[in-house]
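Why does residue order matter? Because the sequence determines the fold. Keep that principle in mind as you read this record.
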Amino acid sequence: MVIAPAAHGLKFSEFKIDYHQSKLAGVDSRYVNLPIEIPADIDAVQQKMGEFFKK
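Structure:
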């Protein structure tokens, strides 16, 4: 998983994952960014990021 938060956000990675998967009870996840699963390979990461930024 690639998470690009501000430095202080690194403390709350579990919360961010749960938020974006709508797993937090009582929290309306209105700004969800669903996870994108790719192999743990630098070429696969670069390819997916290239696809994302071409949008």
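The chain is about 35% helix and 0% strand.
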